[in-house]
C-alpha cells in the first residue's frame, strides 16, 4: 500500500488525539494541486491562414492530455459563526450550521455572499442535510429539536423531542429509503422523525452514551457511529432496534460513518487516527492508519466516484483515500487551524466546514 502526498499550502500543525501504534504505509509524492486563476484575455483579430496539408497515408497518434489537478477554495462566513456542518444544495447554494450564532447559514459560491436564518432563542445547530423535499434539515442540540428550513420561503419549523428526552445532545441525521429522518444524540439516544406525520420517537442506544455520525446506504439501511462507545450500529428501520458492530481496534473512537455505492460502511476512527471499512455482505473489517505521527481522523465522506475523504485535525488537511489502490492523498488547507468537523459533496465538489477559522472550504475535482 502506498500513500501519495499532495499539498497546496503548508500550514502549522495543530493538536490532535494520540493514536495507538499501527503499521504505517509507504509515502509516495504526487503532483501538487493548483489554485485556479482566471485571467481575462484581449479580443483577438482573426488572421487568415492557408489550408493545411494532410497526408492521407499518415497514421494519427492519440494525444495524451494530463488530467487537471484538484483546486481548493475557501469562503469567509461571518466571524463568530463557528460553522459545524455543511450541506451543498441542488440549486448550487451551500447550507451550513452557524453553531455559535444559533442560525442556519446559506452561502452563494458564485458571489461569496452569505445569509443567516435565525433558528430561535437558545439554538445551537450541529448537523444539516438536504432532505428529499429540498429543504434543509437540522439537528439542533440547543433547542433539543429537529428543525426544517424551507429552501424557498425560509420558513422555520421545529419538531421538539418528547418532554422526557431532554438534553439529548443531538448530533447528525440521515433519511432512510422511505423518507423517514433518523438522528443521533451523544447522550445515549437515537431517534426518528416521520415528516408526513410530524411525530418524533426517541430510543435508548444499546450501549449508552456516544451516538454521533449517521448515514444511509443506497439500499436504505441506516448505520450510526458511537464515539464514546467505539463501535458502529445498524438500525433496523422496521423494528427500530439498533445492533452494535465492533471494529477490530478497541477504543478507536468511531466518530462518523458513510456508505459507498456498494453499501460498505466507512468509519473515521478518531482516537486511533484510522480509516475503517465494514463490509456487511461478508461481515468483515479492514483498517488503515492515516499518514503522520498523530493523525486525527474526524469526518468521513464517500464521493460519487467512491473515493473516501476524511478531515485530519492534526495535519490541518483533507485526505483522500483510493480504495482500489489503497493510496492516501493529502490536501493541506490554506487556513489554520481549520478544524473541519464534517464533509459533504456533490459531483466534482467536496465541501467542508472550517469551524476553527470561520470559513467554508471546497475541493473541486476535475
Short description:
The protein has strands spanning 2-7, 26-29, 71-76, 83-88, 94-98, 103-107, 114-118, 125-130, 136-140, 145-149, 156-160, 170-175, 181-185, 189-194, 199-204, 211-216, 222-226, 231-236, 241-245, 254-259, 265-269, 274-279, 284-289, 297-302, 308-312, 317-322, 327-332, 340-346, 349-354, 359-364.
Q: Tell me about the largest β-sheet.
A: 6 strands, mixed
Low-confidence stretches: 1-64
User: Count the strands?
Assistant: 30
Rg measurement, Å:
22 Å
Q: Helix fraction? A: under 10%
What do we call the CATH homologous superfamily? YVTN repeat-like/Quinoprotein amine dehydrogenase
* N-to-C order of helices and strands: EEEEEEEEEEEEEEEEEEEEEEEEEEEEEE
CATH class reads: Mainly Beta
Q: Describe it for me?
A:
- With 366 residues, this protein is mainly beta.
- The chain has one domain (2-30, 70-364): Methylamine Dehydrogenase, Chain H, CATH 2.130.10.10.
- The chain is built from no helices and 30 strands.
- The strands form seven sheets. Strands 2-1-27-26-25-24 form a six-stranded mixed beta sheet, with no helix packed on it. Strands 3-30-29-28 form a four-stranded antiparallel beta sheet, with no helix packed on it. Strands 4-5-6-7 form a four-stranded antiparallel beta sheet, with no helix packed on it.
- A hairpin with a 4-residue loop joins strand 18 (231-236) and strand 19.
- Mean pLDDT is 87; it is low at 1-64.
Secondary-structure map with pairings?
Elements: E1 2-7, E2 26-29, E3 71-76, E4 83-88, E5 94-98, E6 103-107, E7 114-118, E8 125-130, E9 136-140, E10 145-149, E11 156-160, E12 170-175, E13 181-185, E14 189-194, E15 199-204, E16 211-216, E17 222-226, E18 231-236, E19 241-245, E20 254-259, E21 265-269, E22 274-279, E23 284-289, E24 297-302, E25 308-312, E26 317-322, E27 327-332, E28 340-346, E29 349-354, E30 359-364
Parallel strand pairs: 1-2, 1-27
Antiparallel strand pairs: 3-30, 4-5, 5-6, 6-7, 8-9, 9-10, 10-11, 12-13, 13-14, 14-15, 16-17, 17-18, 18-19, 20-21, 21-22, 22-23, 24-25, 25-26, 26-27, 28-29, 29-30
Amino acid at each position: 500500500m502506498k500513500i501519495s502526498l499532495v499539498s497546496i499550502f503548508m500550514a502549522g500543525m495543530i493538536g490532535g488525539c494520540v493514536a495507538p501504534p499501527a503499521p504505517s504505509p509507504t509515502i509516495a509524492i504526487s503532483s501538487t494541486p493548483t489554485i485556479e486563476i482566471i485571467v481575462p484575455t484581449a479580443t483577438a483579430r482573426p488572421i487568415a491562414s492557408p489550408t493545411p496539408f494532410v497526408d492521407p497515408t499518415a497514421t494519427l497518434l492519440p494525444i495524451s492530455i494530463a488530467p487537471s489537478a484538484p483546486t481548493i477554495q475557501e469562503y469567509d462566513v461571518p466571524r463568530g459563526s463557528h460553522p459545524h456542518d455543511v450541506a451543498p444544495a441542488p440549486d448550487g447554494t451551500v447550507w451550513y450550521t452557524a453553531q455559535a450564532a444559533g442560525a442556519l447559514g446559506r452561502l452563494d459560491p458564485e458571489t461569496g455572499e452569505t445569509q443567516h436564518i435565525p433558528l430561535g432563542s437558545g439554538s445551537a445547530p450541529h448537523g444539516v442535510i438536504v432532505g428529499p423535499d429540498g429543504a434543509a434539515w437540522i439537528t439542533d442540540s440547543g433547542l433539543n429539536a429537529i428543525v426544517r428550513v424551507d429552501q424557498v420561503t425560509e420558513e422555520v419549523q421545529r419538531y421538539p423531542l418528547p418532554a422526557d428526552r431532554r438534553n439529548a445532545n443531538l448530533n447528525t441525521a440521515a433519511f432512510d429509503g422511505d423518507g423517514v429522518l433518523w438522528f443521533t444524540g451523544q447522550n445515549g439516544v437515537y431517534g426518528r422523525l416521520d415528516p408526513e406525520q410530524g411525530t418524533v420517537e426517541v430510543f435508548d442506544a444499546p450501549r449508552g452514551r456516544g451516538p454521533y455520525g449517521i448515514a444511509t446506504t443506497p439500499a436504505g439501511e441506516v448505520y450510526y457511529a458511537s464515539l464514546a462507545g467505539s463501535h458502529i450500529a445498524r438500525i433496523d428501520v422496521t423494528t427500530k432496534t439498533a445492533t452494535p458492530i465492533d471494529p477490530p481496534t478497541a477504543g478507536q473512537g468511531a466518530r462518523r460513518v458513510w456508505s459507498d455505492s456498494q453499501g460498505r460502511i466507512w468509519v473515521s476512527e478518531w482516537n486511533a487516527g484510522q480509516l475503517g471499512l465494514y463490509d456487511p455482505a461478508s461481515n468483515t473489517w479492514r483498517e488503515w492508519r492515516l499518514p503522520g505521527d498523530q493523525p486525527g481522523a474526524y469526518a468521513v465522506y464517500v464521493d460519487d466516484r467512491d473515493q473516501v475523504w476524511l478531515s485530519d485535525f492534526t495535519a490541518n488537511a483533507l485526505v483522500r483515500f483510493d480504495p482500489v489502490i489503497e493510496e492516501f492523498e493529502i490536501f493541506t488547507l490554506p487556513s489554520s487551524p481549520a478544524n473541519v468537523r464534517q464533509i459533504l459533496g456533490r459531483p466534482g465538489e467536496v465541501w467542508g466546514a472550517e469551524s476553527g477559522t470561520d470559513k467554508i472550504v471546497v475541493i473541486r475535482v476535475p
